[in-house]
Amino acid sequence: MTVMQHIWIVLGVLFVLLNIAAGLIWVERRLLALWQDRLGPNRAGPLGIFIVLADTLKLFFKEDWIPPFADKWVFITAPAIVAGSVLLSFVIIPFAPGIVVADLNVGLLFFLAMSSLGVYSIVLGGWASNNKYALLGAMRGASQMIAYEVFMGLSLMGVVMITGSFNMGDIVDAQKNVWFCFTQPLGFIIFFIAGVAETHRLPFDIPEAESELIAGFHAEYSGMKFGMFFIGEYLGITLISAMTVTLFFGGWHGPAFLPPLAWFALKTILFLGLFILLRASLPRPRYDQLIEYGWKVLLPVVLANLMITGAIALWLKST
Amino acid sequence: MEVLFCISSLVAILSTVMVITRLNPVHALLYLVVSFMSVAMIFLSLGAPFMAVLEVIVYAGAIIVLFIFVTMMLNLGKETAEQERNWLKPRVWVGPSLLAAVLLAEMIILLTKGQPGSMQVTVVDPKKVALSLYGEYIIALELVGFLMIAGIVGAAHIGKHRKKTFHRFLEDEAETEQQLKADYHDVHTG
């Protein structure tokens, strides 16, 4: 691959991702409206799609206010961390054969490392705001994300065991015949639950639970700094969907009549829809319920899954 | 590769100095995160990508988050900054830093005048790490496992609290009932 091709891939991925993140504003509102039996934004432009434009314009031109009691530099850094860490995770995803930014040997671990750095945006944002509600949100966010990172990492180890590699390209290649969602159903379910918790989306949005904490960790943010959290959340959903597709649903593999990239996009869009459906249909659990569910249900299940997978892999190897 | 190594070592040293000199503990911890990430870069430039990623996942991503978590609940204000300023007098840090500077000078001399082939990079992939951990060093690994279990059991013991089954109104009732019983006992024995 020449340097120019590489730069084009990087720019292309960045362009598509940022547009998806903005476009999801409209998609989410229309889909939520559909499932809640109302219309949603339908005035500006065809099917109301210009709401994206209106929303971004509004975010850009709002007063960008830093509270005088806040820790200024940390307050400014926090929203950049979330967008940066999520965008960096996309580096290792193979979108189609040959279309990958960095074909790392430790790709899967790189994704886990970036998602563990994403915690800082919530913690620092909540702390720097110097506001009780924000601090409560940050504390909830930190313990939720640290806990669910553990299950996320463990749930992926089954896939790694079967493939024998951390490289994302190898993992996709190993699913040529059977997708891992069939051989690793538990791993898939736990990864998806942990993914929802990692992106702190509804129903697991307790760090920002608006009915209890106003807006939690980003209560003091306005303008484009709030916009960064907003975009970071949508990018996070896209990341988890893309990762689910790559790890458990065969990546760009699919029946022959569509190009690989189209298969990847199609499957990812399906999972994006599932994220929005979850938001439309599930109630938010209490904070202690969420943590208990993680450590008392998910952890034993994911460990059992790991051991059974290991045993079967050893047995297959010996016969 | 050598250039990358030098740059990331420089970042590591600078950020670690910043960790020590910051007065606000959360700012110090932020510099510590940068320090860990530059150490990860050093590992990467020396051909150990697995170690590099683990450094970020474990140290930068989990342990320092817990540090910040605790520090931000302590609500440290201006008094702590003042206290830190008092502790950080030249009398305290001049001696150790002079000694460390001597070591640094020695290392620079070694790096510049030493054998040119001393920075040979061999890439160690995850498989090699796993094979040596579960082959050569299996006993050490098992012992570390024991240590971890001890930590977990300790945490579980400290974190355990007796579960209350009564609602607070029922609890009052139970108390008065006990009081009545005691009175009854008193009356009948005394």
UniProtKB/TrEMBL annotation, chain A:
Membrane-crossing segments per the record: 7-27, 43-61, 73-100, 106-125, 146-165, 177-197, 226-249, 261-281, 293-316
Functional summary from the UniProt entry: NDH-1 shuttles electrons from NADH, via FMN and iron-sulfur (Fe-S) centers, to quinones in the respiratory chain. The immediate electron acceptor for the enzyme in this species is believed to be ubiquinone. Couples the redox reaction to proton translocation (for every two electrons transferred, four hydrogen ions are translocated across the cytoplasmic membrane), and thus conserves the redox energy in a proton gradient. This subunit may bind ubiquinone.
A biological-process GO annotation: aerobic respiration
Subcellular location: Cell membrane; Membrane
Keyword Disulfide bond annotated: no
Superkingdom, natural source: Bacteria
PROSITE patterns reported for this sequence: COMPLEX1_ND1_2
GO molecular function terms attached to this record: NADH dehydrogenase activity; oxidoreductase activity, acting on NAD(P)H, quinone or similar compound as acceptor; quinone binding
Reaction equation(s) it catalyzes: a quinone + NADH + 5 H(+)(in) = a quinol + NAD(+) + 4 H(+)(out)
Pfam families (UniProt xref): NADHdh
Coarse class of the protein's main subcellular location: membrane
A cellular component annotation (GO) from this entry: plasma membrane
Subunit structure: NDH-1 is composed of 14 different subunits. Subunits NuoA, H, J, K, L, M, N constitute the membrane sector of the complex.
Family: Belongs to the complex I subunit 1 family.
E.C. number: 7.1.1.-
HAMAP family from the UniProt entry: NDH1_NuoH (MF_01350)
UniProt-recorded name of the protein: NADH-quinone oxidoreductase subunit H
Keywords noted in UniProt: Cell membrane, Membrane, NAD, Quinone, Translocase, Transmembrane, Transmembrane helix, Ubiquinone
